[in-house]
Amino acid sequence: MNELNNRDRIFTAISRDGTRLACVVDGRGPPLLMIHGTGDTHLGWRRIRPHLTPRFTLYLMDRRGRGVSGDREEYALEREWEDVAAVIDAIPEPVNVFAHSFGAMCALEAALSATNIRRMCVYEPSVNRNTGNARREFTIDEMSRLCALGDRDAVVTVHLRNIINASDETIEKQRSQKEAWAARMAMAHTMPRELQALRNYRFDARRFAPIGVPLRVLLGEKSVGHGPETARSLVDAVRGSELVRLQGQGHFAMLTAPELLAQTLGEFFL
User: Fold this and answer.
1) I need a surface site. Which of 44, 170, 199, 225 has the fewest CB within 10 A?
2) CA–CA separation, 230 vs 90, rounded Å?
3) E strand map for the chain
4) pLDDT value for 38
């Protein structure tokens, strides 16, 4: 599968453990770093990308193990935080940051050490707040089993249905994006490892109180699960932050309402 097209430019940074991290760069204007969630690559921004490139220079980061970035055999959540901080601080001017789902958690953690952030917007930070939930625990183990069997399509589908709580309609819409779906399957092996590692992560919104840049937290009006609780607790903890609900949307507004999401980001970052 071709991860790049002929007009793509690549920006690279090196994480603390020596992993090469890559961003596809496109557009013109102030820099906007975009960090995808679990089960995605920079291709996940394909529908919103043309709505943003006239106003921003986009740095579409591939997290480790995905797309055009490198990887290491040993894995820990802390490496993800360090990766995002390394990219933020390598960009040559203060950068706006937008991150989705698990990528939003990476961005929040990175914001505690990175020094080059102008503004930050996170869309439904995804954390494992329901450790001990039997269905979720079974799903994580099932994803690991399916991954070992090489059934990458099933890993992606089970993750969307049982972890993200996406509807069958949403899953089929994503499956119809053939290149993006193929990209998800290509790095399906990274999904169980993140979820396994998150079993030992405890989200405490108060830890992010020191974030000293303007912060906007996005929440889909139709989102379910722990997303709303996490979003509200974060806004309560970080002074000056704001909660914005995306009308009629769930967890994937970049796919279902790219113009609405682009407008929301433009209002905040420009």
Assistant:
1) 199
2) 29
3) 9-14, 20-27, 31-35, 57-62, 95-100, 117-123, 215-220, 242-246
4) 86
Amino acid code (one letter) for 67: G
Distances (CA, A) of 100 to 103, 147, 149, 266: 5, 24, 29, 16
pTM above 0.85, yes or no: yes
Average pLDDT, the chain: 92
Looking up tokens 């995002």, which residue turns up?
84
Cα(129)–Cα(266) distance, integer angstroms: 31
Contact 106, 35 (CB under 8 A): yes
Structure tokens at 36: 């995808």
Average pLDDT over residues 181-185: 88
Closest by Cα among 59, 110, 58 to 86: 110
pLDDT for 78 equals 96
For tokens 């802390």, name the residue: 78
Question: How would CATH label the architecture of 9-130+202-269?
Answer: 3-Layer(aba) Sandwich (3.40)
206 burial class (0-12, 13-18, 19+ CB within 10 angstroms)?
exposed
* Neighbouring C-beta atoms of residue 67, cutoff 10 Å: 23
How far is it, in rounded angstroms, from Cα 11 to Cα 68?
Answer: 10
Tell me which amino acid residue 113 is. S
What integer pLDDT is reported at residue 1 of this predicted model? 42
Q: What is the pLDDT of residues 57-79, one digit of tens each?
A: 999 999 999 999 999 989 999 99
Output the pLDDT for position 223: 86
Secondary structure of residue 81 in the 3-state scheme: helix
Which structure tokens are listed for 75?
Answer: 């894995």
